[in-house]
């Protein structure tokens, strides 16, 4: 730790558990820390230990009680040096005399370096860099001291400058921040001055120098802060042409309409724009301290024709808080601070062609208290105006990004199937994890943790893991299109299953080691764009493959090896691979040879070496080009004949 406070967590029931902190001393001979026991207290030296119990998790806080200010003259209880605290701590969790957990902390804390003296009201005047260099002495690197060989350093006394006056830094670094540049007529810095230099040199003052970065009346570039504001119209009077798939939805203030969404890193971004015809369903974790309200619901939305519509908002109260709330701390009712917040928001956009006709929003409100973790849910769904009973018609039979992939189980009388991945909750255990559907075009990676005993039979473990992975895929076929019919087998592609590899390696009776555990499920979906409907690409699934990756599970022995349970993470990944709708035409040998002389594919174009003499050159009549070419060839031949090798012997 490098600060005065550090937090950790104790997993499990803390009833009857005694927490203590001790200062660990190193043995001067062996260099090892002294053995700890359970006879400590919650205070050791300048350190305090605070424990906040919870349901299955207890928060452990270690804090420093002493000050971190540097010592002033005749001061006590302060830091004599910048490195103020260097100590080793041990936090113990014991039940009686049995040690359950142990945490080793290496503390290296520096003193506060904030300025506490008098602040001068004289503001530093920064010169305009267009006319005067900001740093007139770049080699002056040390404040309040003389820099050796820096002759422009005003902090160097004349006696010190005499020591290195003959070896001062030269150039811009040595203080010559405004040297004459090579283009000046008075400059003699060029070693070889061409004969035409006096005709093209520059007559200018040294104040107008390129070393400053600007010239007089030059344009300056101001930094532009990133903003979600964009112009509604590209030119005055030009109407808004409507939305296309993937375009961000705009508000009346010419800003993006935003709803919290997940980023590529898995975190929630609160100001993410909503894309037209892109559905999503995300969940974001927050607490009362970090909770932020989203975009107000009274914001009017651009329909796509420069008209604006109001959102139809319906507010409801959450009845079952258990679906959204995870209690991380147990506080007394009198000490709890609660606030009415948004638990979920469901947006339904009714669209027609390139316009938005209606926006319906359902907001679920509930009470969030301090110490609780809220799982917010945000959904956006686009429904066609021509739909019946709120269902979107199959105008575009292909898949759209963000919609669930259709699955079917052709071996059952009810062919309805499912293709899911995990949605972990709580501690991330597989026993408490729920499922969520695989969305088209969205590469996903999820997993959960399986508790495994040290005496677990390897065959049973493989079967248990395989069963949990196969439970995600309750299907034998995947729909080629979003409107695939269960009665037509040609509308479906069969799932290709690759069984996990087994090497039949024997562990020799060792406990806690199991090879070839199929812990990773890999789902690869190959699709292609086969057309377009009203400008929207029609995407179709061509093949689906499911494979397994095996790992070597080994029991992880904790501190003291008191626990007989270990954890095995199992994962499921989904990858969408786009391929051409038609296989590319194979390149023949003729095309390979011709490509070497193709001017569009090579930097060197040999066919255009004599381009002015070819018929493709149309800048001048062909007869004039031919005459000039022959004259040029004659001059080259004459120069070759009149050169020294032939006439030197005459």
UniProtKB/TrEMBL annotation:
Keywords: Cilium biogenesis/degradation, Glycoprotein, Signal. InterPro entries: TCTN1-3, TCTN1-3_dom, TCTN1-3_N. GO terms for biological process: cilium assembly; protein localization to ciliary transition zone; smoothened signaling pathway. Residues 112-222 form the Tectonic-1-3 N-terminal domain. It holds the Pfam family TCTN_DUF1619. Residues 241-384, 398-579 form the Tectonic-1-3 domain. GO terms for cellular component: MKS complex. Belongs to the tectonic family. Part of the tectonic-like complex (also named B9 complex). This is TECT2 protein. It comes from Struthidea cinerea.
